[in-house]
Amino acid sequence: MSLYVMLTNLTDEGRKTVKTNPQRIKEVNKEVEAMGVKILAQYVVMGQYDFINILEAPNNEAIARVAIELGSRGTLQTNTLAAMTLDDFINSLKK
Q1: CATH no., domain 2-93
Q2: What residue ranges do the domains of the chain occupy?
Q3: Number of C-alpha atoms within 13 angstroms, CB side, residue 82?
């Protein structure tokens, strides 16, 4: 399984949805998990992004599917980064 960091911003429509139904965030999380992507951690942040999500997916195709599905709803925009643990990075340099 591969790790990804998904940085997310709500659109105007997304902010309206979250304000009227904050529980919708957890409903979307269930939809993401149903697409085969595990949410390892999720944080609300202040600044350039609204949310930081740490995800685990079987491959790039699965994470791309999630990003396109969520983005196509018009309630958020995503920026997704492939990630690796520090130990994996160090071990890759030893080879």
Answers
A1: 3.30.70.920
A2: 2-93
A3: 9
